[in-house]
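Issue: ligand-bound run for NAP - logging full I/O for the record.

Environment: standard queue, default settings, no custom constraints.

Inputs:
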Amino acid sequence: MKAAYLKQTGPPENIIYGDLPTPKPGPTQCLVKVGAVSLNPVDTYIRSGMVQMQLPVPFIVGCDLAGTVSEVGAHAARFKPGDRVWGTNQGLLGRQGTFAEFAAVDECWLYPTPGGVSDEQAAAISLVGITAHLGLMRDAKLKKSETIFVNGGSGGVGSTVVQMAKGLGARVITAAGSDEKVEACRKLGADAVINYKKENVDAAIKAFAPAGVNVWWET
Ligand SMILES: NC(=O)c1ccc[n+]([C@@H]2O[C@H](COP(=O)([O-])OP(=O)(O)OC[C@H]3O[C@@H](n4cnc5c(N)ncnc54)[C@H](OP(=O)(O)O)[C@@H]3O)[C@@H](O)[C@H]2O)c1
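Outputs:
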């Protein structure tokens, strides 16, 4: 199969695009025919060696994937061949990554892709979606009508937080670094958007939420 992999960490030039053996699924793994992947900052930290961890050699880069199960291990029971799945947290702590035609992924890391959601959409929301969901629901416990400030609303995590917070019924103010990105944040549903390169962020937040914000999300 074709894969993007490293033999050693370092600059982007260390990424090799070439042939590797198609993996066999372990007992609790699914072999996923990868339909789409997405890139997160952590992929670059691991590729560069900035975040150090034990990596298999060769190491396939990438955390996120979406695709279709093509084979399952002897003790894997959650999915069957033909099921569409998405997942993240691969390429970490000794696990192989996802930037390949096939990935053998433990079934505990996979979730069913809803009908009507493309592989591209599912892969794009995977790590950023889980990050936003854990931060908003588990940690911040954001509630309807509360106010949240999202610093970096145009980024992967920030744009997801803006949309989830609006979905929860919160008042959302966010900051972005250009007029185009300000407009993009408005389209995502933000109630107020600050161009942090032109405006005073503190004053704009105070004008929007004189009593202060309930949640400050820093990306
Ligand atoms: N991706 C994930 O799922 C994930 C999970 C856990 C942790 N993280 C961490 O969270 C951070 C963001 O990740 P990401 O995937 O969202 O990256 P990203 O897509 O690159 O977004 C980062 C955003 O930060 C904004 N920004 C940069 N300088 C700023 C400043 N001075 N003031 C306000 N905003 C500024 C940029 O927006 P402008 O261009 O508009 O300035 C950019 O869109 C990274 O440190 C990453 O390691 C990410």
